[in-house]
Design goal:
CATH superfamily of chain B: DsrEFH-like
Largest interface: A-B, 17 and 15 residues
Distance between the termini of chain A: 24 Å
CATH superfamily of chain A: TusA-like domain
Number of domains of chain B: 1
Mean pLDDT of chain A: 88
Number of domains of chain A: 1
Mean pLDDT of chain B: 94
CATH class of chain B: Alpha Beta
Number of strands of chain B: 5
Strand order of the largest sheet of chain A: 1-2-4-3
Low-confidence stretches of chain A: none
Number of helices of chain A: 2
Strand content of chain A: 25-35%
Order of helices and strands of chain B: EHEHHHEHEHE
Shape of chain B: globular
CATH class of chain A: Alpha Beta
CATH architecture of chain A: 2-Layer Sandwich
Oligomer: heterodimer
Shape of chain A: globular
Chain lengths: ~90, ~140
């Protein structure tokens, strides 16, 4: 499967726009994915969800879930063990 | 109007084992599937069904190196250090994300469980092999754990 490419040079996640914040720092598989899914279910279409986490595999897998759900990945920033991901529902 | 709303793909898991590590596998895969937009069901049968007894979820031994509980104690300690979620939390998450739990009726008979002995609040349906086949034939993924 091809890697999902995201332009991480576009600048910061639109922090002000993010209505829903998910903090899964310190959590491991499968909690970050599950918490993101819960937040996306609660979000309304168009809402921005911002996720922060430290689990390296989730930095790759949350974008995969976003693609599978047909939503928009806005940004992926930070090192593998301290990242921020923004998603638009 | 030709509007073919795509049905979400499904994962159906048979949880035959009651071993702690295998219950983890089933719940992690189930939660992962739900998180990635699939439907998921877990069919609890045989030793797996024991984990749905009231107070039974965390009681399973390790599938290997249980060593009268010493191995399990060591693994649990390491899991705590790695901040791995509890089975209880994973089961709650599974339900919250719409996962379905099916209890095997024949196992209930064999083990002498009544519905009252099981965590009825979590169980969506009670069934037999036909229920599983109906689930599995519509599934993209099916696993026997």
């Amino acid at each position: 499967m091809a890697d999902i490419k995201v332009d991480t040079t576009k600048g910061e996640c639109p922090l002000d726009e993010a209505k829903i914040k998910v903090d899964c720092r310190g959590e491991t598989c499968p909690v970050p994915l599950v918490e993101v899914r819960k937040a996306l279910r609660k979000a309304s279409p168009g809402d921005v969800v911002e996720v922060v986490g430290t689990h390296p595999a989730s930095k790759k897998e949350i974008p995969m879930a976003v693609e599978a759900l047909g939503l928009t990945l806005l940004s992926v920033e930070g090192p593998d063990d301290d990242w921020t991901i923004c998603i638009r529902r | 109007m030709e509007q073919s709303e795509k049905k979400p793909e499904r994962v159906s898991i048979v949880l035959h084992s009651g071993d702690m590590d295998k219950v983890y596998s089933a719940l992690i895969i189930g939660n992962g599937a739900l998180a990635m937009g699939m439907e998921a069901s877990i069919y609890f049968t045989f030793w797996g069904l024991q984990r749905l007894q009231k107070g039974g979820l965390e009681k399973g031994p390790l599938s290997k190196m249980h060593m009268l509980g010493l191995g399990k104690w060591m693994i649990k300690r390491r899991m705590k250090k790695a901040n791995v979620a509890s089975l209880e939390r994973l089961l709650r998450d599974f339900k919250e994300l719409g996962g379905r739990i099916i209890a095997c009726e024949m196992t209930m008979e064999i083990m002498g469980f009544t519905r009252h002995d099981l965590r009825e609040d979590l169980i969506d349906s009670y069934g037999a092999v036909g229920t599983y086949i109906r689930e599995a034939r519509e599934s993209a993924i099916t696993l026997f754990i």
